[in-house]
Amino acid sequence: MMNIAFCINDTYAPYVAVTLKSLVENNSSNALNVYILTDGISDKNICLLENVLKRGRLYIYNVDDRKLRGLKDVWSIYSWYRVLLPEVLPYEVKNYIIFGCGCCDR
User: Fold this and answer.
1) Distance, CA of 34 to CA of 98 (rounded, Å)
2) Closest CA to 13 of 37, 48, 39
3) Which of 12, 27, 65, 96 is deepest in the core (most CB within 10 A)?
4) What are φ and ψ of residue 53, in 5° steps?
5) 89 — alpha (psi -120 to 50), left (phi > 0) or beta?
6) pLDDT digit string (tens) for 68-90?
């Protein structure tokens, strides 16, 4: 089982779908647990992600990012969501890979 994390908004969900498709196709022997921290994802994009993720589970966590507001703004707020992963993910998830979608940034 591979644990994968993304910290995104709704706009980046299609890019995450492309990454998931590649992960699914290139890790046929592993099921994936995909954890998404977000400030909101549309039902349409949730369906897109679920359809791509054939083996595994999708977990979406809506983040209360009030405690992150006001931090140094060199990164987007979604980059700061990574700081919250240890307290948001289930206790039994000890190891995970964080994928960023910054390569798709405009």
Assistant:
1) 10
2) 48
3) 12
4) -80, 95
5) beta
6) 777 766 667 777 788 788 888 98
Mean pLDDT of all residues belonging to the chain: 85
Query: Going by DSSP bridges, is the β-strand pair 97-99/2-8 parallel, antiparallel, or unpaired?
Result: parallel
Length of the chain in terms of residues written:
106
Residues facing 36 on adjacent strands: 6, 60
Whole-angstrom CA distances from 9 to 14, 20, 71, 79, 90 are: 10, 16, 18, 11, 21
| CB-based contact 84:63 (threshold 8 Å) | yes
DSSP code, position 35: E
Task: At 99, list the tokens.
Answer: 């994928």
CA gap 32, 36 in Å, rounded: 12
State pTM to two decimals.
Answer: 0.85
